[in-house]
Amino acid sequence: MGRGRAKAKQTKVARQLKYANHHIDYDRLREELGADTRREELYPSTAEQEPERAQ
To answer: What are the phi and psi torsion angles at 37 (to 5°)?
Structure first.
């Protein structure tokens, strides 16, 4: 058999990942990813703001 020790280690690692308090600095992450542009510039809120196309 010999699987008990390996399974116990996997369970321990899974518990650590599940219950660990991960401190994430979202502002720093945003800066590193270059997401400092405004959302409105990327996604206009309404279609009325877009120029009308000739049909």
So the answer is: -75, 150
Q: Could you give the dihedral angle defined by the CA atoms of residues 44, 45, 48 and 50, in that order, rounded to the nearest 10 degrees?
A: 0
Instruction: Express each pLDDT in 2-55 by its tens digit.
Output: 789 999 999 999 999 888 887 888 888 888 888 755 555 666 666 665 566 665
Spatial separation of the C-alpha atoms in residues 35 and 23, rounded to whole Å? 20
One-letter amino acid for residue 35 of the chain: A
DSSP state of 15: H
* Amino acid at the residue 30: R
